[in-house]
Amino acid sequence: MAWAADSAPVEEAEPVPLSVDKAAGVLAGIPDLAVAWPFGRIGFLELKIGRNDETPAQKAMLDRLRRYGFPVAVVRSVDEALDALRSWGAPINGKVAA
Predict the structure, then answer these.
(1) Cα dihedral sign, 8-9-15-17
(2) What pTM does this model have?
(3) CA 40 to chain centre
(4) What is the C-alpha separation between 96 and 93, in angstroms, rounded?
(5) Distance CA 85, CA 23 (A)
């Protein structure tokens, strides 16, 4: 499941679920999460469990996104995800429960 914010002002934005479906034209290898923050910034997180590695399609897509200048990280924990977001300058507010 992917999420996007609607076009309301930030303080009023509600998450809107987006269906991810290959039949709808979604490219293979798209990262698990796209994270957007103010001023048009967006980064991508590929979530992995244990020793799982990226598929060839995921590696190719992550390399492509990096070449386009997007921040990209492969993470295996909430802490790694938060570290990546902080390193990109994304505003992290509040507490995160894992």
Answers:
(1) positive
(2) 0.70
(3) 14
(4) 9
(5) 31
| Distance between CA atoms of residues 89 and 85, nearest Å | 6
Residue with tokens 């990262």: 31
Q: What whole-number distance in Å separates Cα of residue 54 and Cα of residue 46?
A: 8
The SS3 assignment for 14 reads coil
Model confidence at 3, pLDDT cuts 50, 70, 90, reads: very low
pLDDT at residue 27, as a whole number: 78
Find all residues with CB under 8 Å of 12, minimum gap 6, and list them. Answer: none
pLDDT of residue 39: 85
State the residue for tokens 């048009």: 40
How far is Cα 39 from Cα 89, in angstroms, rounded to an integer? 11
Q: Helices H, strands E: what count in the chain?
A: 2, 5
Q: How far is CA 71 from each of CA 2, 13, 74, rounded to the nearest angstrom?
A: 18, 24, 11
Residues 39-58: pLDDT tens digits? 889 999 999 998 899 999 99
